[in-house]
Amino acid sequence: MRLLIPEKPATGLRFLPATQGPARQQFQRLLATATYDSLFPGNRKALLTSVTKNLRIKEMQARKGSQMQAKVLIVDAVATNRIMLTVTFSAAFYDVASAPSLDAAVDRVHASPPDLVILSGDLPQNGTFEFCKSMKSNAALSTVPIVMITEKDSPAFRLQALRAGAEDILSKPVADGLLLARIRSLLRAQATTQELRLRDGTSRALGFCEDAYGFSGPGRIALVATDLTDAQHLAGTITAGVAHDVHAHSIKSAMGALDEQNTPDVFVIALTNSEPDPGLRLLADIRARASTRHAAIIVITAAGCQHTAADAFDLGADDAMPDGVDAAEFALRLTTQLSRKRQSDRLRETMRSGAQAAVTDPLTGLYNRRYALPHLARIMETAMRTDKPFAVMIADLDHFKSINDRFGHAVGDAVLIDVAQRLRRNLRAVDLVARFGGEEFLIVMPNTGLKAARTAARRLCSAVQETPVMKNPVASDIQPASLVPPLHVTISIGVAIAGDPDTAPFLPDMVQADTVARLLDAADQALYKAKDKGRNCVRMSRPAA
Q1: Residue 195 domain-assigned?
Q2: Do 449 and 502 reside in the same domain of the chain?
Q3: Is residue 440 domain-shared with residue 516, that is, in the same domain?
Q4: pLDDT 10s digits, 334-346
Q5: Quick check: 428 and 447 in contact, CB under 8 A?
Q6: I need a labelling partner for 314 at 20 to 30 A (CA). Which of 228, 280, 374, 394 fits?
């Protein structure tokens, strides 16, 4: 690798890596606009270090097959800022693009929608807010989180940015640890929102168009501080005008209330700067308990405690605010988190109830074929639009006919129910698992490439094989319950991948319906190979899309 940096002012920097390809092209674009007018003398060494580091990262990413987590768009007029942020996100294996102006950013988001936008708050203010509003008013971009990084930290600016649609405003300087933790938190929330919309769209495609959003009453808010007096003082300071049921708790009393039936919708936890922080312990406990793990959590941090905020995000906090934030900003953030929590509740309720009996298998409680195929088409549509891979699996119980023949259909039904529960428990909330027919199951995993799909399929095989089914035997028309032993069953799985950049990329002329049919056929053929190889195994298809 060679870097050519002129010793005298020039119209621009030129960069010539020894290697060719995307790394060279990206940094040529970045450095083409980086003149000496925009580079302070103290930044020059940092710039060279960053460029060198990013080249190594890009080469490593190429060797790993470009398995990126998400697409991040950086919008900043200062070239050095764009380069430094590119290094930070590339090191975390995000797919990074940048834009030097709001006009360029608009072109970028429409040409290749990002998963998240990092926006400089030091760009022209009116244009920045209009950019946020235009994204949030666009149905295809409305769920893309926007994080603003700025030196402007006035309450009025922060409130205006939040109202325009920014998810957060981070004040410079921002530690890399806090920035990355915040991004991870926002992307988790985004996945829930997108999945709710995806499942709503599938239900509408099936003709179920009931109102998905009923009346929502006041939320239950628990405001927690080290002791009750501090919590009551904080409640009186920041909750003026909040139309929700707010209750103050000390950390000790909050811990005792976690298992109550009417648990809070939102916890607001005031963190201290102590080590260890009792508020962080409470946060971890909230996320660990079944009764509270789905509550929204907002933390309030002391000034300058970026590491504490980063720890809170990685433990599961949904939002963080600096101590001293005004009541209007608190109310706006609280409303946002309460809305997201209720969206998440709706998604889980839809998954638990299976929507309507027409799309649910009455035996296993899984979705049936009628639901699965339209939902698979929706996943395919989303994957092609976002250029992200997904996996299709067909799992089949081994030697199931012999179980029916030997013990009867009642035992066979009990085996199907047990296996269905194991599959569902070992998949993510965003994954689809459906009974496809007889002893066959369809599994679809969005945003999943070849390696992750193979690992998941093997995990499912192990989950079925590791412990016997029929721990509580049932009687049948063939055998009494006392004569039905615990049964060890296995499954075979065939896997097909679509959208993997190395094995099955999306092509411009693909027809969605044809591609779905080919994927199902490819997974089916892989399943036959698994059966031929002795069963209880996973086989990957050859590229099918």
Answers
A1: no
A2: yes
A3: yes
A4: 988 998 888 778 7
A5: no
A6: 228
